[in-house]
Amino acid sequence: MQKLFSTSDAPAGERASYWHDALRGAFVQLDCTFCGADEQVFGQIETARLATVELSRIAATAQNVRRTRRGIATASADRFFLNLQLEGQGVLLQDGRELEMKPGGLTLFDTMRPYELIFRERFEGFVVSVPGEWLRRRIRDRDMLTAREIASGTGAGRLLRTMLTMLASDAGTIEEEAVPSVAASLEDMLVAGLLASGDNRRGRRDDVAARRGDRIRAFAAEHLCDPGLSVDTIASSFGVAASTIHRSFSDQACSLNVWIWNERLNRARADLGDPAMRGRTITEIAFAWGFNDSGHFSRAFRRRFGCRPRDIRSALH
Predict the structure, then answer these.
(1) Whole-model pTM?
(2) What is the pLDDT of residues 218-238, one digit of tens each?
(3) Which of 7, 60, 66, 139 is the most exposed, fewest CB within 10 Å of its CB?
(4) Distance of CA 271 to CAs 282, 283, 310, Å?
(5) Residue 183: strand pairing partners
């Protein structure tokens, strides 16, 4: 690895600002918030390049990182990020999907779509950045390219994980004349891993219940601001029994009620960090997304994001 960004180089009191700029320099236009004091902020990024493939090894303290529509419009770098989680755990949110990022796991996300990364603890990851136009030519199904987990236990996914693990340690030792071939091999392994995972996913999505689950999620997303939104009200709107709703959501990482709760928290957190929403109080924002108890909201917010709502709001000042 070559270029290094580290908060150790930042003056006292300016670590958070330095890290914010470092993230943007190494990746794309991003917003970052911390829950702790500036002196507790730590972050380090090592970068390297293999032809059109960019490599970054990142280690940092707990934080929330957001790619917003405004950021995309400001700097629309068209890349896909493939993350190999090395240490710690995180959560990836994109296009209504939520993926847990655990050590050894592989996740892919699109920088041309808004996303959020939530890390409640110190973490380390290895990020591979590939050109967006190239990957879209190789894989036409857009649904395979946003917030996608690549199975890394067997087959092509395991080979991809092994290759990334080796590159995380030895990228700087690759001979110059070998770089184009290594980059091409890495790109081919990424496509193979996605296609292998996609074949399994398509088999599930052929099921009627899975397709209904997509419609249920879309309906719930449109009605998050309604405090009365529940499995029963959704079932009534679809004209089916509540048990049918539960079955249609059974292949998801969490229940529908939990998904609604988490999505409301995600939307409230986005508003709290939006400068355009400064004029609204924390309680007003919480109630606008379907919460009806400010104390309950604050406790749930802290459990999910590891900090208080007012910590996000104070970061705007």
Answers:
(1) 0.72
(2) 788 889 999 999 999 999 988
(3) 139
(4) 9, 12, 12
(5) none
